[in-house]
Amino acid sequence: MIYFDNSATTKPYEEVIDSFVKVSTEYFGNPSSLHNIGGKAEQLLTQARSQVARLLNVKNSEIYFTSGGTEGNNLAIKGAALTYRGRGRHIITTSIEHPSVSEAINQLEQLGFNVTYVPVDLNGRVNAKEVEKAIRSDTILVSVMHINNEVGTVQPIKEIGMMLKKYPKILFHVDHVQGAGKVPLNFYECGIDLCTISGHKFHGLKGTGALFIRDGVRISPLLSGGNQELNIRSGTENVAGMVAMAKALRLTLQKRETGIHQMEAIKDTLRKELEKIDGVKVHTPKEGSAPHILNFSVRRFKAEVFVHALEEQDIYVSTTSACSSKKKSPSKTLIAMGVPEEEADSAIRISLSYENTMEEALYAADKIRQTIKQLGEVMS
């Protein structure tokens, strides 16, 4: 099996699963309980928080555990908007955000907030100057993803963050879900106030994640109850999941040190091989894109047909983001980039992990070439 759908989810490391099982069976107590079993669970949770903070180069007090990227983005955006609505009701975002951002903001629009959607260029990149042009006296939040989940474009987060320092009343939220473990991001240098990561994108378990909230920033909780996570996120903590996520992040960052050049070489090889094939157009920009995402279209073929044809070859890729793939609508990112709808309808995403090999890439490229030829013969 060749698994090239790592932006949808990654396979958990064996060590991560072992860690989850050990904590679940031996340290199963509620960390809010007063007895010793609860105390041990609380200690493990504290250690996991400290490890995640250290790996992200932030303070322990700035890490809040969540159930993943969707909750983290919703908590950051809605929590900030509700807290600071007295300052204003204007939010700035881009036209290519993940649904967990765009739909959260859409809900706020229905509650009376105003939103400006900044466009992107032909490479799927937003311009910091366009973000600044959108700022109004009542702007309270800017939300821009770090790595686009469909085409892999890296956004100018540092440039936007530095610009926003001129507007200290505006919070800056970044969806770092696709970047964590692949593309470094210094939260402090980039002036980020709120930042989201998700465990299952870097070989952790589904249902685990974290939200960075810069010290001094206040947000309203979305879940009320037992006041866990310093009153930000109520609910009994998933101790085993967070311990496992901390281990997954550590292992992934270690693999990045030795594997990033290999990943870049694999992506470059796939691009070169795909560009040789008649009818294929690569949408991921050559410069300024993440090392693990490659998006391309195959002329005349619906994306889902091609995905299933490759699946028969035991090669697994995706269409748009996993959250949108079953809607059978063209990629909103590609449409925003000016790609014709017919091309956007046939877009395929390859997404790599440090576990993939050059041999897999060459084999997959050959099978893609053969599949295009076979499907073409059937259609003609």
Automatic annotation (TrEMBL):
SUPFAM superfamilies (UniProt xref):
PLP-dependent transferases
Sorted UniProt keywords = Iron, Iron-sulfur, Metal-binding, Pyridoxal phosphate, Transferase
The residue ranges crossing the membrane are none
Q: Which Pfam families match?
A: Aminotran_5
Which cofactor(s) are needed, names only?
Answer: pyridoxal 5'-phosphate
Q: Which GO terms describe its molecular function?
A: cysteine desulfurase activity; iron-sulfur cluster binding; metal ion binding
Residue span, Aminotransferase class V domain:
2-360
Extract the Gene3D superfamilies matched here.
Aspartate Aminotransferase, domain 1, Type I PLP-dependent aspartate aminotransferase-like (Major domain)
Q: Please state what class of enzyme this protein is.
A: transferase
Enzyme Commission code(s) on record: 2.8.1.7
InterPro entries in alphabetical order: Aminotrans_V_dom (IPR000192), Cysteine_dSase (IPR016454), PyrdxlP-dep_Trfase (IPR015424), PyrdxlP-dep_Trfase_major (IPR015421), PyrdxlP-dep_Trfase_small (IPR015422)
Q: Which PANTHER family match?
A: CYSTEINE DESULFURASE ISCS 2-RELATED, CYSTEINE DESULFURYLASE FAMILY MEMBER
Member of which family?
Belongs to the class-V pyridoxal-phosphate-dependent aminotransferase family. NifS/IscS subfamily.
Which NCBIfam families does this one have? PRK02948.1 (NF002806)
**Name this protein carries in UniProt:** Cysteine desulfurase IscS 2
Q: Give me the gene this protein comes from.
A: iscS2
